[in-house]
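Give me structure tokens for this 73-residue protein.
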Amino acid sequence: MAIILFYGLALYALCGIVIGIAFVTLGLAQVLPHASVTAPARILWLPGAAILWPYVLMRWRQARAAAKTHRAL
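Here you go.
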């Protein structure tokens, strides 16, 4: 039972790191289009994005959908 919990936590952490890095490099400008985010600020965003990756992914997808809708109009 403990090994399943460990692997689940490791998978969550791995997904968080991958999505966090992708979000900080690519998605932050989409979610916050009016903010100019510097490199040190991106470093500060990374731990939060990695821990809260399901919420970050949801917001990123919503921002992309809103941008598509806005471009179509």
